[in-house]
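Issue 218. Parser rejects a valid record. Input:
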Amino acid sequence: MTIQLSDIDIRQLKIFRAVVESNGFTNAEVILNISQSTISHQMRNLEARLGINLCERGRAGFRLTEKGRLVYEETLQLFKAHERFQYATGELKGKLSGYLNIVLIDSVVTDPECPIVSALNKFNNRDHNVTISLETALPGDIERLLLDADTDLAIGTFERKLPGLKYRNIYLETNNLMCGCGHPIAQLNDSAQIKLAIKKSRKVTRGYLNNEDISMLDHDPEIAIGVAQSLEAQAILILSGSHIGFLPIHYTLEWVNQKRMQAIIPDEITYKSPFYVVTRNSPRKSRIIDAFMADLDSAIAERPGQKSF
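Output the parser choked on:
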């Protein structure tokens, strides 16, 4: 029997989604701002309505059943379709109305070369009623979000290029080889001694760079290489005085000024990281995306020495 969804069904599906994404009733209570007993009541009603046992809960914790997992996946598709319908009809009115989803790699806010702030400023000077969703993620997660159509565009650095995505180089980020001021290299002045110390030092790279940064350095294969999944995690290891590694110049300025970190032979050793704006090869048709991309293009063109893409 086909179920005709009512407003109550939609509300209960939203509760179900929150329970799944927060991994249990207790966490969902905080997110939904309703009591756990109300959540349990609504979940029981939804299960009765669908005739399906959606999840197991008890001392062993929260777990989706196989049918519950399928219902959750269909629920996501339902909400996506509902959102697309709302915003598509909004655009038909002639005014920019709808949503714009953007994902960035972490810590670009301190980078004066990154055009995102200027582009958002230009876009928000337009007459629009657009909900802008902005988040940060790792490059691999960003590409997945794009391929799954969960975001419209992204800005970041990507060592690999996936089919189905369009990458446009927009600027280069300069990274210096950094050490904490407690690292032995920080006490050296002779270039030859520093280069020998570099070879013998522990190094840390970001996992998504696939060792592209530290591959340019001499390294003793007997010494383990640390891996961080974010700039902050990498900076912590460098600040500890145990590792050296490449960090963006803009990101390190505060620590350098505090004399907690210093660049190692910056006139000779740098790593250039290309940044891209990435979209799907076949993005959703949207006047909103077109308008923002035009503003991003304009922001890039206004920077000295830069060309629009």
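Fixed in the parser; the record now loads. The chain has three domains: 7-87, 93-166+277-301, 173-273.
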